[in-house]
């Protein structure tokens, strides 16, 4: 038995707070737009079918606020964790620390945090200073949420302050999930993240990235866990899964796909460019390797590929990622509630999974 078989992985779903839900990509459906009712339905479904965690994405131009939504969901879900995305620099660090601590109390210690290094709405920074700001925010945030006084005189964060009275249930900062492919992003993750998140890539690409990040963290005396963010289309047979994938993009034209991709504040990042490279290198059916389909990226600026296949094929692919060192999966599909039910019925009961240990 390999270590991947012996150790449970965290399996999370995605609540489409950022107006990213479709029956067919590029075809707007008002009933699938981001709202408390619709996204709450996705979260409740994810918990009912057995997911360990759920990502609440954040975007200024699109959808509803992740922190406010998490507060609304906290009294409703009883077992599952929430992975709340926050964009660094958009909020004063002490106030963000207090909000996170309060959410963690409401969640009885089940809160996790996805840090996003993004340009602020209406502003733009070069990569190096933007990631420097992210590192300073992450450092100050962790210090306060660990219950310690923060004394930092950085380029972006100057703060000399005791922690707030209300802390997290554990008395420690919740796990910080963070991703990015640029050298600046990798250095921040190695220095300050708990879980390094990556978007879809080939198995060789995943192996190279895990190896690089382990080495960067080791140089700082740290270790990282690894998460993999990918869409999924699973059906009883491979033919049915391929048909579902084809239907998903059947009404999408290239101009509309480009328009949707351009909406993201991060649409020019190194990670987004890598997703485009995978699409360009894929075969005529959109597959870059067995069961990894890039067609979904035609209408998405970020995570741009899906695992497509029958339950055995999806399980085998997940196992390959596990053997490369992946501890956590953040999955999604279209429409998000329906695909959560497919995966929850066909695959999740066959996985050894549990929330990542705090």
In summary, what is this structure?
Helices cover 39% and strands 17% of the residues.
Instruction: Please report which band the strand proportion falls in: under 5%, 5-15%, 15-25%, 25-35%, 35-45% or over 45%.
Output: 15-25%
Overall mean confidence score, pLDDT: 92
What is the CATH C-level name?
A: Alpha Beta
Number of helices: 12
The residue ranges in which pLDDT falls below 50 over 5 or more consecutive positions are none
Helix content: 25-40%
Instruction: Count up the domains.
Output: 1
CATH superfamily: Luciferase-like domain
Tell me how many strands there are: 13
N-to-C CA distance: 25 Å
Strand order of the largest sheet: 1-2-3-4-7-8-9-13
Give a written overview of the molecule.
The protein has 358 residues and is of the alpha/beta class. It is 39% helix and 17% strand. It is built from twelve helices and 13 strands. An eight-stranded parallel beta barrel has the order 1-2-3-4-7-8-9-13, surrounded by eight helices. A two-stranded antiparallel sheet has the order 5-6. α4 (93-106) packs across α5 (127-145), α5 (127-145) packs parallel to α6 and α6 crosses α7. The mean pLDDT is 92.
């Amino acid at each position: 038995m390999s270590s991947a078989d012996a150790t449970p992985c965290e399996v999370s779903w995605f609540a489409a707070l950022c107006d990213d839900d479709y029956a067919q990509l590029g075809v707007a459906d008002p009933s699938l737009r981001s709202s408390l009712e619709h996204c709450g339905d996705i979260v409740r479904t994810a918990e009912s079918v057995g997911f360990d965690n759920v990502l609440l994405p954040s975007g200024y131009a699109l959808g509803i606020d992740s922190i406010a939504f998490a507060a609304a969901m906290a009294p409703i879900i009883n077992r599952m964790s929430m992975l709340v995305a926050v964009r660094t620099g958009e909020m004063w660090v002490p106030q963000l620390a207090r909000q996170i601590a309060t959410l963690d109390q409401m969640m009885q210690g089940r809160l996790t945090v996805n840090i996003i290094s993004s340009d602020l709405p209406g502003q733009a920074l070069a990569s190096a200073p933007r990631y420097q700001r992210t590192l300073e925010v992450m450092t100050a945030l962790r210090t306060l949420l660990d219950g310690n006084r923060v004394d930092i005189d950085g380029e972006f964060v100057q703060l000399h302050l005791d922690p707030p009275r209300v802390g997290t249930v554990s008395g420690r900062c919740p796990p910080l999930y963070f991703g990015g492919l640029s050298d600046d992003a990798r250095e921040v993750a190695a220095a300050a993240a708990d879980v390094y998140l990556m978007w879809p890539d080939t198995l060789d690409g995943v192996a190279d990235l895990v190896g690089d990040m382990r080495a960067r963290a080791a140089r700082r005396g740290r270790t990282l866990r690894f998460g993999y963010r990918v869409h999924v289309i699973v059906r009883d047979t491979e033919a049915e899964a391929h048909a579902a994938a084809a239907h998903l993009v059947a009404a999408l034209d290239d101009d509309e796909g480009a328009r949707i991709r351009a909406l993201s504040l991060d649409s020019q990042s190194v990670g987004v460019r890598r997703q485009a490279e995978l699409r360009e290198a894929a075969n005529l059916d959109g597959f870059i390797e067995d069961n990894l389909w890039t067609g979904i990226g035609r209408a998405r600026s970020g995570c741009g590929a899906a695992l497509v296949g029958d339950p055995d094929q999806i399980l085998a692919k997940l196992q390959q990622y596990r053997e490369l060192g992946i501890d956590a999966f953040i999955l999604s599909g279209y429409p998000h509630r329906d695909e959560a039910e497919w995966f929850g019925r066909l695959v999740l009961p066959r996985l050894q999974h549990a929330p990542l240990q705090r």
